[in-house]
Amino acid sequence: MNPTLELAKELISRPSITPSDEGCQELIAKRLEAINFKIEHVPFGDVKNLWATYGESGPLFIFLGHTDVVPTGPIEEWSHDPFNPIEKDGFLYGRGAADMKGSVAAFVTSIEDFFNENKSEMQGRIGVLLTSDEEGPAINGVAKVVEELNNRKEKIDWCLVGEPTASKTLGDVIKVGRRGSIGCEIKIFGIQGHIAYPHKAKNPIHLATEAINGISKLHWEDKTGQFQDSVLQISNLNSGTGASNVIPGELTLNCNVRYSPSTTTEAIKESVESILKSHNLSYEINWIQGGNPFLNTETTLIESVKNSIISIIDIVPDQTTDGGTSDGRFVAPTGAEVVELGPVNDSIHKIDERVKIEDLAQLSEVYKNILKSLLT
Ligand SMILES: [Zn+2]
């Protein structure tokens, strides 16, 4: 009997492609209501969010996760129906198995087990925050709920995000921060003309080469010791009309920087724009802010997560900050300590997504241990 597996299967059988929830949160709410959680549905637009809490006072620990999944891709390439969970060779197959319905199921079973064993000694509060828009624009999801909680002066102390962080085996990697992301589109203007009359035109490709060279070398040092240095990457470079006898009128350049908390977006913007200015270019620049970076300054949750992994799985996890962004970026600015721990991520967003069945039970055990260490 593996209750985490059973619940994960029930969740996977609901085809909740972003921003759809398909009753996943209702199912979780029922389970939590049965153990006396206070249930609040907090929808914004077409996004469903669940905020469930237990306890009256003391530090607040929350599990943070999402019920939405990414699209399946070509269904005919799947070995089985992605929304009909299948157990095979020790794995559970289905869209969302690893990202992150397995973790969401483990949230619930870990709390149920913790209550069975240690409820009378519990001090503090437990919350579960779920959204149906993590994989999409993430505008009406956790960002809005956190805003609402801030308005109520609700302070989260510890936040455990169930994103699939493991690289090869469960527990080998946890994330204690994430890089931020900022991008820009730069348009450099020249004057279009005949290639045989260059004195009557202005070639933006020629004008931009030195600036592009300078921009491509930009980097910002990480001083936290937890991140790589931040480097700018050019993702797109376009100019030319397609004709070989025309000097183009403009050049477009797209850049992105994944940056550590040692760097600010102001510093990045200033570096790029000062290079453009120093070459006297006629240009236009449009900045696109992605997620903000975060890094824990406290280590209570980190220590609890590490010790729980060591005692249950018997491996010492690596602490990293790489990868894309997660909803942890919305909770970290409230001052909460945020750590991410979830299943192996080698099949996420892919055809035949899967999770090891024994990892589901083990993940639930680790989560329970964390609750025990922080709240008793
Ligand atoms: Zn995810």
CATH topology of the largest domain: Aminopeptidase
Q: Could you tell me which ligands this complex binds, including any ions or cofactors?
A: zinc ion
The backbone outline, from C-alpha atoms, is elongated
- Please state the second-level CATH architecture of the largest domain: 3-Layer(aba) Sandwich
Identify the strand order in the major beta sheet. 1-2-6-3-7-19
- Can you tell me the residue ranges where pLDDT is under 50 for at least 5 consecutive residues? none
**Beta strand %:** 25-35%
Q: What about the largest sheet?
A: 6 strands, mixed
Helix proportion: 25-40%
Per CATH, the class of the largest domain reads Alpha Beta
Total helical elements: 9
- Our Rg estimate from Cα atoms comes to 24 Å
By CATH, the superfamily of the largest domain comes out as: Zn peptidases
Average pLDDT value? Answer: 96
- N-end to C-end Cα span: 27 Å
Order of helices and strands: HHEEEEEHEHEEEEEHEEEEHEEHEHEEH
Structure characterization notes:
The structure is a single chain. This protein folds into two domains: 3-178 and 293-375, 3-Layer(aba) Sandwich (Aminopeptidase), CATH 3.40.630; 180-289, 2-Layer Sandwich (Alpha-Beta Plaits). The chain is 31% helix and 25% strand. The chain has nine helices and 20 strands. Strand 1 (38-41) and strand 2 (49-54) form a beta hairpin. Helix 7 (300-313) crosses helix 9 (357-375). It starts with a helix and ends with a helix.
